[in-house]
Amino acid sequence: MDQTIKYYDDxxxxxxMNTKDANMENLYKLFLKYIPEGGKILDLGCGSGRDTxxxxxxxxxxxxxxxxxEMVKLSSEYTGKKTLHMTFQEIDFEEEFDGIWxxxxxxxxxxxxxxxxxxxxxRALKPNGVLYVSFKYGDKEEYRYDGxxxxxxxxxxxxxxxxxxxxxxxxxxxxxxxxRKDRENEKWLNVIVKKxxxxx
Length: 200
Prior knowledge:
Layout: H1 2-10, H2 12-19, H3 25-32, E1 40-44, H4 50-57, E2 61-66, H5 69-79, E3 84-85, E4 97-102, H6 111-124, E5 125-136, E6 140-143, E7 149-152, H7 155-165, E8 168-177, E9 187-195
Parallel strand pairs: 1-2, 1-4, 2-3, 4-5
Antiparallel strand pairs: 5-9, 6-7, 8-9
């Protein structure tokens, strides 16, 4: 994770410019239909702050966090609201959020750590709260040439993970193409899961 965060620190402005205008409207609709009006959202790994800015503009109460200090600076400036500098391992909320938005962020978590991070998310959600999560489509782990780590899931491998955990129900799975220019051939797994009401 350290090398991945270093990449975003070193390339923050380029990443910000490449992602801040991506059209996420369809995925916002997928997520927000489960969130009460004015509800509280955690933007987990907020990157440029694009999604936080959108949610704030729609009247939601948003907490944004990111592990890269340079992305924290850019997103805070872009959204007009302070982004918290926090890694996935450091999140420690309890039944605070109606929804957690983890767009292209948990894909940097290794498979031997993903269960512990998802449990932190489970704890952070209010009863019946929902998580939106997206991964590059596939079933593998890899380090990129630029030092970043990626964890890919497909419908089968992610469904097996959620079943093994036992404290989420899958509500929706959607496969989409990347919305960024010249990346249209890349596929993404988008999933909405709901917190089960019985505590673990």
